[in-house]
Amino acid sequence: MSAGRLLSVLLLLQSRGRMSARGIADELGVSVRTAYRDLARLQAAGVPIYAEPGRGGGYRLLDGYRTRLTGMSEGEARALFFAGLPGPAADLGLAAEVTAARLKLLAALPAGLRQEAARTAAVFHLDAPGWYREPEQTPYLPLFVDAVLTQRAVDVHYRRWRAPQEVHRRLRPYGLVLKSGIWYLVAAAESRIATYRVAQVLDALLSDERFDRPQDFGLGAYWASYLDDFQARRYTGAATIRLSPRGRRRLPDNVPPEVVRAVDSTATAVGDDGWVEAVIPTESTEHACGELLRLGIDVEVVAPAELRQAMAATVGVLAGAYGLG
């Protein structure tokens, strides 16, 4: 029996209000039988847990019962200070709340753990946006936080990449995702769930409409599925290229990881000078031409003919611009 796991069960019930044995088991990564056994042990120890039968029932603590959090390990004290890092918290409009929560947490910890947590906070800093890019302006992000937490619909004026570029939508926000310094809103609109780049919202207004988030919706699972679908839709073609040794070394700094992996898995030597030939995925002729031109003389397109011609035409224009044509 794990005392730490029993404490986790207790804290889950305290924070969630009511949970099924299956929900507890999934949360802690144990079997349902183990969850039932842990609940019985807590009840035997005098913890006022009672079961609510029927559809939508589960286990919950007696109203008003609270436990003091004790026995926090050094690692757990460190981990707490990775939650709510200041950059994303400020984006969400929660910087003051995170600061206040940290101060209260530090005050509640024993002296030894307080020092360890403070050391952790002092030596880690999160800077989410990628290099060579200014952080996106997201003035409506705090409004979406409010909408997600209160389950209120939002009327938005949104700019998208395809025509018509500017559209109006009523969104029912399910969650927010921070990906490589870019905030995305996952929301239901017109009976389908879609992803919206928050920086592309031109205007937003909270409505009076309330909605219920589907019980079977999981933000993490949705996002993983969305990324898989995005990759499948992104690469619709393929190209055969040749790379010099220097070009292969420069590849990770100039193309996406999927292209690097494709080169690594398909590369075959051509000649004795270290050049290799490989097959890579491509989005479009125009996009592939722009990416591959970053490698200069260290890459040659073998096929398809359209991409090879586009590369040659672009190089010809550049030569003419510099008086070499």
Automatic annotation (TrEMBL):
<dbReference type="InterPro" id="IPR036388">
    <property type="entry name" value="WH-like_DNA-bd_sf"/>
</dbReference>
<dbReference type="Pfam" id="PF25583">
    <property type="entry name" value="WCX"/>
</dbReference>
<dbReference type="Pfam" id="PF08279">
    <property type="entry name" value="HTH_11"/>
</dbReference>
<feature type="domain" description="Helix-turn-helix type 11">
    <location>
        <begin position="5"/>
        <end position="60"/>
    </location>
</feature>
<dbReference type="InterPro" id="IPR026881">
    <property type="entry name" value="WYL_dom"/>
</dbReference>
<protein>
    <submittedName>
        <fullName>WYL domain-containing protein</fullName>
    </submittedName>
</protein>
<dbReference type="Pfam" id="PF13280">
    <property type="entry name" value="WYL"/>
</dbReference>
<dbReference type="InterPro" id="IPR051534">
    <property type="entry name" value="CBASS_pafABC_assoc_protein"/>
</dbReference>
<dbReference type="InterPro" id="IPR013196">
    <property type="entry name" value="HTH_11"/>
</dbReference>
<feature type="domain" description="WYL">
    <location>
        <begin position="141"/>
        <end position="203"/>
    </location>
</feature>
<dbReference type="InterPro" id="IPR036390">
    <property type="entry name" value="WH_DNA-bd_sf"/>
</dbReference>
<dbReference type="InterPro" id="IPR057727">
    <property type="entry name" value="WCX_dom"/>
</dbReference>
<feature type="domain" description="WCX">
    <location>
        <begin position="238"/>
        <end position="315"/>
    </location>
</feature>
<dbReference type="InterPro" id="IPR028349">
    <property type="entry name" value="PafC-like"/>
</dbReference>
